[in-house]
Every structure is written in structure tokens, then in C-alpha cells.
């Protein structure tokens, strides 16, 4: 795959901050830092959002189940960030109702009601409706033995797009974003980090940075130990999560949160109008984070949980696609993978005569912005000129004038009705400024082409995109000048 680099100016000799990792935490920190007036360099060995950040359940949520583990601080912060992201990115974050079927032998009703009350009130909730108790009728997609349940609000997000938009925000503030670029080594020399980097074509170059941020995700501890030759204050545990994509299980735009006999939960989430995402799993992972595939046991587990709840029974033949990733969680010595905290830990070392390094352990998609803000707070003593925090009120690229995904879809239909419906949806889903992408282009009945200067990359896996289009590569831009994420057969 060709190397992609997006400099806004020639490489400078010294950056304020160098960030290792192009997942959500890395690009979030790059965006925050560059918006505070710092010069930022970010490198990612593959493509943006190639691993953990694009293998999530695609939810912006407080984490209802974390209440059982008494993680009230994490839930409160995540609920507050849910509101922030609804305002920052209304074009890719949308409200969704979640239905929790009641299974009395697993959790009594009073416990669930108490959890719902806390969920409604722990964090700021301005845009979303409160929880409620519901009853299921004969037309319910659930098994007839399930007659009641609970409903609450959370949000859905295009996770890979969230990463790309943060990289765009960083780039707009002057950051240099380099994909297909691996940090070979980094050493402290005379109060400065000296980084040696290798592009995918084998070419080498070096930069200097006053501070280093290790946001390498599954490789965070390995980077400290093997590339920096330092000791790590924290360990990392890799927990595999796998999802299935199946034909649409039920009508409606709501998700289900299913309780299993092992006290875990599995989501069913509407996806691209004609499909349902079912997942996730939790299992310890000891393999290569570059090559994470669903196991037969995981597939059977997810199918069984779904079949225990729905009238429509699923088999392996119904599985259209699977995707898997590993969550790099801070090792808290928990015996149960599901009980390991999803909170983040920031480890800062250096100072005085030593150049600082900040390493990111753990975290979740919903709290990436707060994590980045906390990271900058820790680095603030090293950058006296750094501007104050700014990301809470700033829209992500493309979200400035759009109020809801529905409003964007209506605008796409009004302005570009000559495009096939599937491409209008794609345009609305992904483009920041569609009028620029389509400027000077005539209406055409054939397949649209990338706008001038567009280069895209394939994320791993093949996703079913639209009925009738079969399995196709979904191409994501890795830089702001790549205007059209085109679907090719």
C-alpha cells in the first residue's frame, strides 16, 4: 500500500509533541495539542483507525454495565462526554434507544431500575430522553417468554470516521499526520526526543520533539519496553472483542442489550438499514494484535445469546461478515475479562533535564476527548505558552452547520438527487464539505470518481455496504484533501 503523508509545511526540525499512534486517543491528543498552539507530529504504522478504534461496537455510551463494577466516576465522565460529542459531531453521532429485555433470574427488576435511575442522573442529560419500563406485545421480535423490559438512551457513532475527523481537526491546526510510518526508535538526547522513522517504502527520516506521547494502543507497553528500552509503570491486557454482521433481525432503529447467563451482555445494533451488528465478546488475547480474527467459540457464543432472545433464529450461514479487535486495557489483575476497568491511565515520566513521555493505557471511544484534555493538563508544565482547553465547545469538521444526521440526509437528497440513493447516503455519511467534492462535476449516471487529489486506503476487512452491491471494500480517507471515500466492487 502506498505511503500517505499530509504535511502542511516542510518537516520542521523540532516539534513540541510527537504522537505515536493513529487511533482515537492519538488523534484526539494531536487535535487538542495543535489547537493550543503547539507544533505536533503524529505517526501511525498502518492507516488511521486500522485496529482497535475501528473494531468497536460503534457506541457513544456511558456504560450501563460498568455500574455493576462501581465505576461511577467513569460512567459519570462518559455520560457527560456523550452530551459533548452529540454537540461536537451531530453528523456522525446519533441518538439511539436501547431495549433491555428483563430476565428475572439474571438481574431483578429493582436492580435494573436502580441502575437506570443512576444512568439517567449521574451525568448531564440534556438532549436524550429518560429511561422507562416497557411491555412487549405479540408483534415483538423477542421470544414470547420475554414480556417486559426497560428502555434507555445512548448514541451510535461511525468510529473510524470519528478518528479521521479528529485527524482533520489536528491537521487544520498545523499538525503533521503521517500514516504508513513506523517509529523505529526514540532516544532522549540533551533534553530532547530524537525519533527515527521508517515509511512503508523503506525510506527513513528523523525528527526531534520536546515531548513524546505513546498512544500506540495494543503496542503501548511493547513500544516502551522494546523501542524505548525503558521500564513500564503499568502492564497491558489485550481483550478480544468480536462482532457479527447479519441480515436485519427486526424492524425499527433501536438496539437491544441482551443479558446472558454468564452475566455478560451482547448488543444488537441496526447497521446500514439492512443489517444488524451483534456483539461483542470478551476473551483474553495472547496473539499478534495485527491479526485478530473471530474464533469459532466466539461466533457460537454470540449466535446463542441472540437465539436465546429472538424469534428469528440465526446460524453460521446467516453471518455476512465478522470483525474483531483487541482492547488494550490497563492491567488491574482482574480474573474476569469483562470486569477489567475500561477507564484510562496516563503515565508521565521525565522532566527537569529529561524530555517527558506520556503513555496512554486503556480508555474507551466515548471518553477520548476527556482523555486528550487530561493528557494536555499533565504536559502543561512543559509548555508555558500552551493555550487553554478548547475542544469541549468546538465542532469537529463537518459538524459546524449540521444539526442532525437526518437533516444532512435531507440536504443531500435536495442538492444531489441525481446521485443514486446509496451514494447520497455515503456522501452524507462521510463527506465534510460535499459542495467542494462535487464542484465542477456534471451529473452522471455512472459511478462517481474521486475528486482531484483524492487518495484513499482500505481498512481491514470487507463490509456489506448496500443491498445489491455485494461485499465491497469500504475506503476511508486518511487526510483532509482526500475528498471522496469511494466504494469499488
TrEMBL record:
UniProt entry keywords in alphabetical sequence: FAD, Flavoprotein, Oxidoreductase
Entry's Gene Ontology cellular component terms: glycerol-3-phosphate dehydrogenase (FAD) complex
Reaction catalysed by this enzyme: a quinone + sn-glycerol 3-phosphate = dihydroxyacetone phosphate + a quinol
Protein name as annotated: Glycerol-3-phosphate dehydrogenase
Region (Disordered): 439-476
Repeat keyword on record: no
InterPro entries: FAD-dep_OxRdtase, FAD/NAD-bd_sf, G3P_DH_FAD-dep
Family affiliation: Belongs to the FAD-dependent glycerol-3-phosphate dehydrogenase family.
NCBIfam families: PRK12266.1, PRK13369.1
Enzyme class, spelled out: oxidoreductase
One MF term in the entry's GO annotations: glycerol-3-phosphate dehydrogenase (quinone) activity
Single GO biological process annotation from the record: glycerol-3-phosphate catabolic process
Organism listed in the record: Pseudomonas amygdali pv. mori str. 301020
Pfam family, one: DAO
Gene: glpD
EC annotation from Swiss-Prot or TrEMBL: 1.1.5.3
Signal peptide location: none
Necessary cofactors: FAD
Positions of the FAD dependent oxidoreductase domain: 16-368
Keyword set includes Chaperone: no
Amino acid at each position: 500500500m502506498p505511503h500517505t503523508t499530509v504535511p502542511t509545511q516542510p518537516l520542521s526540525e523540532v516539534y513540541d509533541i510527537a504522537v505515536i499512534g493513529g487511533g482515537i486517543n492519538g488523534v484526539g491528543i494531536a487535535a487538542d495539542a495543535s489547537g493550543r498552539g503547539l507544533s505536533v507530529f503524529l505517526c501511525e504504522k498502518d492507516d488511521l483507525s486500522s485496529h482497535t478504534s475501528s473494531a468497536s461496537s460503534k457506541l457513544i455510551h456511558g456504560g450501563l454495565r460498568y455500574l455493576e463494577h462501581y465505576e461511577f466516576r467513569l460512567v459519570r465522565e462518559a455520560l457527560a462526554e456523550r452530551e459533548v460529542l452529540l454537540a461536537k459531531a451531530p453528523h456522525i453521532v446519533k441518538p439511539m434507544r436501547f431495549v433491555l429485555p428483563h430476565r428475572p433470574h439474571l438481574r431483578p427488576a429493582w436492580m435494573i431500575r436502580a441502575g437506570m435511575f443512576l444512568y439517567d442522573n449521574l451525568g448531564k442529560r440534556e438532549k436524550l430522553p429518560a429511561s422507562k419500563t416497557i411491555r412487549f406485545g405479540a408483534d415483538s421480535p423477542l421470544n414470547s417468554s420475554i414480556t417486559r423490559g426497560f428502555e434507555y438512551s445512548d448514541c451510535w457513532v461511525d468510529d473510524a470516521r470519528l478518528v479521521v475527523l479528529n485527524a482533520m481537526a489536528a491537521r487544520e491546526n498545523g499538525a503533521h499526520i503521517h500514516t504508513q510510518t513506523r517509529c523505529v526508535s526514540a532516544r532522549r538526547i540533551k533534553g530532547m526526543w530524537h525519533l527515527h522513522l521508517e515509511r512503508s517504502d523503506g525510506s527513513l527520516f528523523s525528527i526531534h520533539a520536546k515531548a513524546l506521547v505513546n498512544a500506540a494502543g495494543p503496542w503501548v507497553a511493547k513500544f516502551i519496553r522494546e523501542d524505548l528500552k525503558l521500564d513500564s509503570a503499568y502492564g497491558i491486557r489485550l481483550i478480544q472483542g468480536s462482532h457479527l454482521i447479519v441480515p436485519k433481525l427486526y424492524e425499527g432503529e433501536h438496539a437491544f442489550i441482551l443479558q446472558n447467563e454468564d452475566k455478560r451482555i451482547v448488543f444488537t445494533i441496526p447497521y446500514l438499514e439492512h443489517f444488524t451488528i451483534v456483539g461483542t465478546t470478551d476473551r483474553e488475547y495472547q496473539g499478534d494484535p495485527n491479526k485478530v480474527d473471530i474464533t469459532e467459540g466466539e461466533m457460537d457464543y454470540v449466535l446463542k445469546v441472540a437465539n436465546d432472545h429472538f424469534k428469528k433464529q440465526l446460524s453460521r450461514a446467516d453471518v455476512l461478515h465478522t470483525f474483531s479487535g483487541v482492547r488494550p486495557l490497563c492491567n488491574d489483575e482482574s480474573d474476569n475479562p469483562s470486569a477489567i476497568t475500561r477507564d484510562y491511565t496516563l503515565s508521565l515520566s521525565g522532566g527537569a533535564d529529561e524530555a517527558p513521555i506520556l503513555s496512554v493505557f486503556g480508555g474507551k471511544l466515548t471518553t477520548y476527548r476527556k482523555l486528550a484534555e487530561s493528557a494536555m493538563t499533565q504536559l502543561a508544565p512543559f509548555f508555558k505558552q500552551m493555550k487553554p482547553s478548547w475542544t469541549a465547545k468546538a465542532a469537529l469538521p463537518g459538524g459546524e452547520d449540521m444539526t442532525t444526521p437526518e437533516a444532512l440526509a435531507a440536504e443531500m437528497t435536495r442538492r444531489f438527487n441525481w446521485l443514486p440513493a446509496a451514494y447520497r447516503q455515503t456522501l452524507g455519511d462521510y463527506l465534510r464539505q460535499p459542495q467542494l467534492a462535487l464542484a465542477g462535476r456534471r451529473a452522471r449516471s455512472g459511478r462517481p470518481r474521486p475528486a482531484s487529489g483524492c487518495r484513499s486506503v482500505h481498512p481491514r476487512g470487507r463490509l456489506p455496504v448496500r443491498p445489491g452491491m455485494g461485499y465491497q471494500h469500504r475506503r476511508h480517507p486518511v487526510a483532509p484533501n482526500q475528498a471522496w471515500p469511494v466504494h469499488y466492487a
